[in-house]
Design brief:
Helices cover 17% and strands 29% of the residues. The protein is α/β, with parallel strands linked by helices. The strands form two sheets. The chain has a five-stranded mixed beta sheet with strand order 5-4-3-7-6.
């Protein structure tokens, strides 16, 4: 099982720049991800990396239940429809991971979850969309 830390993630330069504008780097939990991630140009990001606007399929490690979600910016979040904010605990945990990696998160109430990235059903960059 591959469990990642912030430095084991890959972000596109564009995603990194946009996310940096959304948060206060000193105080937000996303700061560690942004500070430690490997950066790559959008045109060079591997197709198996979770980027912004990626639609991914996860498998819960405890139950095996499948979950499909699209990683989005906070203004576009609609969890009931599968659009999960990148600044949510789940969103922060999957950004920059690769297929096969394990995401771990803790919700505000203390509940901890973990899921394996089973597939990336859509990644903008793999489809030739570099500015989404």
């Amino acid at each position: 099982m591959n469990i990642l830390t912030a430095e084991d993630r890959t972000l596109t330069e564009l995603d990194h720049r946009r996310l940096g504008r959304l948060i206060h780097l000193d105080t937000h939990p996303m700061a560690a991800v942004l500070e430690e991630a490997e950066l790559t140009p959008s045109r060079e990001v591997p197709a198996d990396v979770v980027t912004m606007h990626s639609r991914i399929r996860l498998a819960d490690l405890d139950s095996g239940q499948a979950l499909t979600l699209t990683l989005c910016y906070p203004a576009d979040a609609e969890p009931a429809r599968g659009f999960v904010s990148v600044l949510s605990p789940v969103g922060m945990s999957v950004l920059g991971l690769r297929v096969g990696d394990v995401a771990r998160w803790r919700l505000p109430g203390g509940w901890e979850g973990a899921a394996r990235v089973e597939a990336i059903e859509f990644q903008p960059e793999a489809s030739g969309i570099y500015t989404l």
